[in-house]
Amino acid sequence: MSYKEIIVTTPKPLPSFALALLPILVMFSLLIIGYGLLGLRIEALLLISAAITGVIAFKMGYCWDEIMGAIVAKLAKAMPVILILVAVGGLIASWMISGTIPYMVYWGLRLISPQYILIGAFFVTSVVSVFTGTSWGSAGTVGIALMGVAAGLDVSLPAAAGAVVSGAYFGDKLSPLSDSTNFAPIVANTTLYEHIQHMLCTTVPGFVIAAVVFWVAGHHHTEIICATTPPKVVNIIQGLEQLYHFNLALLLPPILILWGALAKKPVLPLMLAASALAITLGIALQGFSLQQSFQAFVGGFDTSMFHANTQPSGKISADIVTLLNRGGLAAMMPTILLVFCAFSFAGILSLTGALTVVLGRFLHLIHSTGQLILSTIIATITVVLTTSDGKLALLIPGELFQDAYVKMGLDTKNLSRTLEDAGTVIEPLVPWTAAGIYMAGTLGVTTLDYLPWAIQCYTGIIFALFYGFTGLTIVKRPTLIQQQDSCQ
Fold this sequence. Notes:
The protein is mainly α and 488 residues long. It has helices at 3-9, 17-37, 42-59, 64-98, 100-111, 117-132, 135-152, 157-174, 179-188, 192-225, 229-243, 252-262, 267-285, 290-299, 304-308, 318-324, 333-352, 354-362, 369-387, 390-407, 413-424, 434-443, 447-450, 455-470.
């Protein structure tokens, strides 16, 4: 009998509220104290949380095979994400071999002034993500190049990463091509374009606030560094010119990625194809061997490969080494370990039904629209923190709270908007979620470092709460009296 069959054929009663709450409180306590205060490795803390949750599962009557089955099932669902994470490492290294990322950095350094890099990164990734519907693709293509520009201009990397993440999730939240934008109205029982239209009420104000902050921060930072930036920029530009043979053909890999995203091609084959194209360009245009290309693809790119080709005439500067020595399949292994640890805890927690019990308790405490919105936000964030799964963060609260919205005479597009405000865009702010791990690994900045700057990702919650308690933009069901201040 398979693990899946064991889980399905041996249902158990749901735990009490206290027992259901225990593993969630334990995980939060371990992460806050161990990770936040003591600096302990998050992987070990998640495994301890999983072990404690496993003991609770044993107490409820689940056997070891059922627990393992739940973990395996969870990891099986995460496997596409894991494979994409691995492919991202190879993609970055291959784009270093071809000169694609250095080419974009080169022109970024030549065209973008330091005071405009933050606002530019925010706008560029916003546009790309809206048209492609993928936050990961936006951050993994133009985001990487923009981070390189920021490093060359001596701009704060956490601020730059926050700008990239903000822009990437602006599109992920609003684009009709985004899977989460399509999924949220489905689970909330509303339509796609009503959902997008309603989302503008929380997303656009957040966009304006983020743009103002990045504009002001960029100009303030420039006043501090303007005296020392030009020589460093000149050195990097000259160094890249010496190392690579630049031409427009180097833009073919990102063009392939953008085309595939717009055409909704499968992500993994698309990334591998872009990597193969980049390796071909690296061999044909940059003079690297097939052996070097494969070595970089697996182990990461290293500037020592240039010396093997006797291309540079002098020592490569430390700034360029820091910029170029990145990527590789192996570089993603620590990230994948974190995914395994997080989903081990999430799998056992899902098996026990603890989340269903805890979130169901919220329904007994709701007496107003504001409380309903607040409860939806708390429930959605709780699912994000405990399951590390953005889709579950939309699905579980969507199913639990839909009847409550209907009973209070509210249009369910209020629910779909709140789910995205507290789920989709909060996921990259949590270090142990797939999105948080991806963004940190891709951009080279830890999640907690870029979190304060990811303004677009948390302003939605602020406006959702404001609207919920004031009644502004809250839409009633069509069969009831429509509210004056609505966003339809």
